[in-house]
Automatic annotation (TrEMBL):
This is 4,4'-diaponeurosporenoate glycosyltransferase. Gene3D superfamilies: Spore Coat Polysaccharide Biosynthesis Protein SpsA, Chain A (3.90.550.10). It holds the Pfam family Glycos_transf_2. It is found in: Cell membrane. Catalyzes the glycosylation of 4,4'-diaponeurosporenoate, i.e. the esterification of glucose at the C1'' position with the carboxyl group of 4,4'-diaponeurosporenic acid, to form glycosyl-4,4'-diaponeurosporenoate. This is a step in the biosynthesis of staphyloxanthin, an orange pigment present in most staphylococci strains. GO terms for molecular function: glycosyltransferase activity. Its main location: membrane. GO terms for cellular component: plasma membrane. The chain crosses the membrane at residues 216-235. It comes from Lyngbya aestuarii BL J. Belongs to the glycosyltransferase 2 family. CrtQ subfamily.
Amino acid sequence: MLRVSIIIPTLNEASHLNRTLKALRLLSPPAWEILVVDGQSEDETVSIAESAGVQVIDSATRGRSTQMNLGAKRATGEVLCFLHADTLVPDDLVTIIAQTLSDTNIVAGGFISLMTGSQTTRWGVSLHNYLKTYYAPFLFRPYLFFRGLRLLFGDQVIFCRRQAFWDCEGFDESLPIMEDADLCRKLVKTGRIRLVNRIVQSSDRRVARWGSFKATLIYLYIGLLWGMGVSADYLQKFYQDIR
């Protein structure tokens, strides 16, 4: 079985992290290691992670790209799996990843993200995000789409071989957002990217704040502008931080 290192970047995630780590304790087979990379949280995030017995890495610099790269440097597994602190994964996660990467033509993969909250499931937003995995590369990078490009985002639990990750220099730390889509664009140069036909559950906190209609418009707008080459620094102003 492949050794899978799960890397969780955190910043003030006390309200979600405990539930996520409880789900990870149910993995069968278990992950090789779980690394929480914290960006100077001001709540109980670090103590929750320490109480769960996972490795905590202190990042002097905040930012998902920086934190995930730091976690990847410390990881010892053959496969890197990047997980948001508010996302729940199936208990056979490690087996799914191993089966997907057993095809040597596949360099990376991710899951279908279902956005859920305490009161509702965001079916419409989830469907759009699923379709975006395919239509975004087809519209804007058709030559890469037919080579196997699928645009995956952080809540889809991206995984890839460690060697491939560093061969393309990991996440671009200069990007404030869209670092995951940029990683996919680089990874596809060495293999195909697969959207696994399994569900992970992500928090709907951002959609709950914006509303489903506004959220879909923002996701669509950002995706279209990014596809046309607009800088991530400009796009960031449409994507405020929500905890």
